[in-house]
Design a protein that fits this description.
Strand content of chain A: 25-35%
GO molecular function (chain B): aspartate carbamoyltransferase activity
Helix content of chain B: 25-40%
Enzyme class (chain B): transferase
Distance between the termini of chain A: 8 Å
Structural class of chain B: alpha/beta
CATH topology of one domain in chain A: Rossmann fold
Largest sheet of chain B: 5 strands, parallel
Strand order of the largest sheet of chain B: 7-6-5-8-9
Distance between the termini of chain B: 31 Å
CATH architecture of the largest domain in chain B: 3-Layer(aba) Sandwich
Oligomer: heterodimer
Shape of chain A: globular
Catalytic activity (chain B): carbamoyl phosphate + L-aspartate = N-carbamoyl-L-aspartate + phosphate + H(+)
Radius of gyration of chain A: 16 Å
CATH superfamily of the largest domain in chain B: Aspartate/ornithine carbamoyltransferase
Structural class of chain A: alpha/beta
Strand order of the largest sheet of chain A: 3-2-4-5-6
Strand content of chain B: 5-15%
CATH architecture of one domain in chain A: 3-Layer(aba) Sandwich
CATH class of one domain in chain A: Alpha Beta
Shape of chain B: globular
Order of helices and strands of chain A: EHEHEEHEEEHE
Largest sheet of chain A: 5 strands, parallel
CATH topology of the largest domain in chain B: Rossmann fold
Pfam family, one (chain B): OTCace
Number of strands of chain B: 9
CATH class of the largest domain in chain B: Alpha Beta
Largest interface: A-B, 19 and 22 residues
InterPro entries (chain B): Asp/Orn_carbamoyltranf_P-bd (IPR006132), Asp/Orn_carbamoylTrfase (IPR006130), Asp/Orn_carbamoylTrfase_sf (IPR036901), Asp_carbamoyltransf (IPR002082), Asp_carbamoyltransf_Asp/Orn-bd (IPR006131)
Order of helices and strands of chain B: HEHEHEHEHEHEEHEHHEHH
Chain lengths: 193, 339
């Protein structure tokens, strides 16, 4: 999840630009094919909002590598969050599961930033209500550390050691009009999401 | 969104679109093997029904259960109310049991408003129909059904009796909706006029003059006494039930005459535009306001409206209870169910 509490805190520094993000996704796509031995039964599920765009980009790269069409969808985790009662009711994202479902397949969850791990915990719960995959893996563009749950990523675009005072913000062309990962500083330290 | 849902007139266009969009996501849960979400775990929803209504009650019950809330059904028949308990004392009892939301159906107009503003209870109040006043969730599910059919095509136009489509983010701007029948006693008509107008639709009410309420001239809609003139320019025609139980005065000479002038039969349906749909909030009086042929045709969305009702009520309960609204008191005893 992108976590930015006050956008005007300090000038954000760009740590990944468009070409870097494209290279990183190409590498992750190759890693997925390698580990899944051909990626026949892979289903990519992006977590809204930006995880969905990353999943679609990864699917396009997998298509180019394998020559087959990769199953891609989205998995909204809003109603499985553990912090629903801390804020007003959130707007729901879209869940779109490919027609063949996820039973017996290798599901790769895709998100932009891995932080506390709570989003992925919620995603695993949501996935359990949809079907029973053969295995579940996790691909993230940025791993910024500070896990609060025993969760790790299988594919990491960039490990970004951060302090809790820093914010990591991913911008993607589809949503923000440009590709970049921005590292900023928030005014007051906040515990992980 | 406000804490309570009392009247469709309280909703802004953005509120209404948010509810419809949320319902669109909720509807997808119905297609899954596990039709349940953990979102309202540990919350209690009380269905407080002073008037018989099996379909609205089970719709709210299904919605609350799909969101994992605990549901307590309280019907006036055979309860302390039949022993003379007042609304206030019933409300205080529910408050003591820790109700996070009260879904109320009452034979008196204004009872939900009284419950919400009295300070008797701290939870959210959802109006499930009060007297001849309002029935906002019915209007929302009607608007949801219309939006899926009339704005569900990829270009935002009508689906022309194909599969109802995804119309997230859209409203009903410019759609012409005709509501036919017993406007006088219909809280469904009243709520629909408010909500559909908010969503940009043009509403026309058609009824015998005796069944149009005093003051309807000030509503944001047209009124007509001639169904045949209105049908060719309607995108959706909503037939209301003739409420025999409220017909304590002679509003029309005979049922046959009513059916001939204001009932929808196959001939009349053929005069509607090709993409137009027929709606009915149920329960239907076949042969009275709608013929069996029309009710069973693919253009009639009555059954779909029931399914959409669960999605809409899930959306309303989620938006009212899903966030950080203060939970009412401590979550104490949830034992006394009066099923």
């Amino acid at each position: 999840m992108d976590s930015i509490s006050s956008p005007h805190a300090a000038p954000a520094r760009s740590v990944l630009e468009g070409p870097d993000i494209a290279r990183v996704l190409t590498r992750i796509a190759h890693e997925i094919v390698e580990r899944a031995k051909g990626a026949d039964d892979v289903v990519l599920l992006g977590i809204p909002t930006r995880g969905v765009f990353l999943a679609r980009r990864l699917a396009a790269k997998l298509d180019a590598i394998t020559g087959r069409s990769t199953q891609v969808g989205s998995l909204d985790i809003t109603m499985y969050r553990d912090d629903l009662r801390l804020r007003p009711a959130r707007t729901l994202g879209r869940t779109e599961i490919p027609a063949d479902g996820v039973d017996g397949r290798l599901v790769v969850l895709v998100d932009d930033v891995l932080f506390s791990g709570r989003t992925i915990r919620a995603a695993l719960d949501a996935l359990g209500d949809i079907g029973r995959p053969r295995a579940v893996q996790l691909a993230v563009l940025v791993d910024r550390g500070h896990r609060e749950l025993p969760i790790r990523a299988d594919y990491v675009g960039k490990n970004l050691p951060t302090s809790l005072r820093e914010t990591v913000r991913v911008q993607l062309d589809e949503e923000d009009g440009r590709d970049s990962v921005l590292l900023g500083v928030r005014e007051t330290p906040a515990p992980g999401e | 969104m406000k804490r309570h849902l009392i009247s469709a007139a309280d909703l802004t266009r953005d509120d209404a679109v948010l509810i419809l969009d949320t319902a669109e996501e909720m509807a997808r849960v119905a297609d899954r093997p596990i039709k349940k979400l953990p979102t309202l775990r540990g919350r209690t929803v009380v269905n407080l029904f002073f008037e018989d209504s099996t379909r609205t009650r089970i719709s709210f019950e299904a919605a609350a259960k799909r969101l994992s809330a605990d549901v307590i059904n309280f019907s006036a028949k055979g309860s302390s109310v039949s022993k003379g308990e007042s609304l206030k004392d019933t409300a205080l009892t529910l408050e003591a049991m820790g109700a996070d939301a009260v879904v109320i159906r009452h034979h008196d107009s204004g009872a939900p408003h009284r419950l919400a503003t009295s300070g008797w209870i701290g939870g959210s109040v959802v109006n499930a129909g009060d007297g001849t006043h309002e029935h906002p969730t019915q209007a929302l599910l009607d608007a949801f059904t219309m939006r899926r059919h009339l704005a569900g095509a990829p270009d935002g136009g009508p689906t022309r009796h194909g599969e109802p489509g995804d119309s997230s983010g859209r409203d009903l701007a410019g759609r012409r909706i005709t509501v036919v029948g017993d406007i006088l006693h219909s809280r469904v008509a009243r709520s629909n006029v408010h909500l559909l107008t908010t969503l940009g639709a043009e509403v026309t009410l058609v009824a015998p003059p005796t069944l149009v309420p005093v003051g309807a001239g000030n509503w944001p809609c047209e009124i007509s006494y001639d169904l045949d003139a209105v049908l060719p320019k309607s995108d959706a025609v909503m037939m209301l039930r003739v409420q025999r139980e409220r017909m304590n005065a002679a509003f029309f000479p005979t049922e046959r005459e009513y059916a001939r002038r204001y009932g929808l039969d196959a001939d009349r349906m053929a005069r509607m535009p090709g993409h137009a749909i027929v709606m009915h909030p149920g329960p239907m009086n076949r042969g009275m306001e709608i013929t069996a042929e029309v009710a069973d045709s693919e253009r009639c969305t009555a059954v779909e409206q029931v399914a959409n009702g669960v999605s809409i009520r899930m959306a309303v309960l989620y938006l009212l209870l899903g966030g950080n609204e203060p939970a009412v008191g401590a979550p104490i005893a949830r034992t006394e169910e009066s099923k």
